[in-house]
Amino acid sequence: MTHDETPAGTPVLEMSADEYRDFLDEEARERLGMSAEEFRHRYIAGELDDSDPDVGMLAALIAVGQNDDRAAA
Amino acid sequence: MPPRSVAQAFADHVNSLLNRTVTDARLTVIGDASHAARFTLACLRGTKPISFALHGSSVRLLVVQTLQLTGEHCQTLTYQYRLSLDEDKQSWLIRWEYYRHRPTPAYPYPLAHVHINAELLAGGADAALPKLHIPTRRVPLELVLWHAIVEWGVEPKTDDWQVLLQDSIDEFERRRLAP
Fold first, then answer.
1. Hey, are the CB atoms on B66 and A60 less than 8 Å from each other?
2. Residue A20 located in a structural domain
3. Which whole-number Å values give the CA distances from B21 to B42, B63, B165, in the listed order?
């Protein structure tokens, strides 16, 4: 994991694939008590209540169903 | 221009806007080596996304936005902008959410919508307001900041905040509609 900053002062955090996976896992576990992969499966299965603000936050963070992760046909 | 530079230029612009109008906080560009053209913007404490304080008010704003770079164009894949009374997630007031693509095949809701943490006042209405996905167009972060200033007592850091926010919205629309 590398921390950097743009000349304008924007923080930049670069993660390896494993570090990014751990980052998502940690967020999902802290917020909803499940791994990111379990969140993804349960979200796609419609098992999660997205009136919970953290469900919407994690769906956005994990980008469920977007591009190469696209769930929708 | 490499994807990282495009994402960083976008984040520089957003941070400049935030810092000139409503907060001293900054969003971090988070890169994932397995997706060279995908980036996330969020305010971090360590590596944890957090809401940030808004100037002169107790309300806070959480921003989580994922970006996909296509050439030199920065596409938003998803966002959640969450306005809250404090850091407790139960204190959320309004959530603006967006998915560029349906997140699940059976997803029935508008891809851009807003949730409101409130109760309906209309007698006999049978709906839990926080569960409703109230349709919107895609909402630029600038309008959320505008709303926070006008409706939630956030004190703008400069008198020309409306010009700054409107210019940023206009520039976004100009680039979005450019051939």
1. yes
2. yes
3. 18, 16, 8
The alpha carbon of residue A35 is apart from the nearest alpha carbon of chain B, in Å, by 15
Structural domain count, chain A: 1
**Distance from B148 to chain A by nearest Cα, in Å?**
19
For B10-45, write each residue's pLDDT tens digit.
Answer: 999 999 999 999 999 999 999 999 999 999 999 999
Return the domain boundaries, chain B.
3-173
Residue B3 confidence class, pLDDT cut points 50, 70, 90: confident
Return phi, psi of residue B70, to 5°. -125, 105
- The string of pLDDT tens digits covering residues B126-156 is 788 899 999 999 999 999 999 999 999 999 9
User: CB–CB of B7/B29 below 8 Å?
Assistant: yes
Model-level pTM?
Answer: 0.94
Q: Which residues of B88-116 are buried (b: 16+ CB within 10 A; e: fewer)?
A: eeebbbbbbbbbbbbbbeebeeebbbbbe
- The domain in which residue A42 lies consists of 13-66
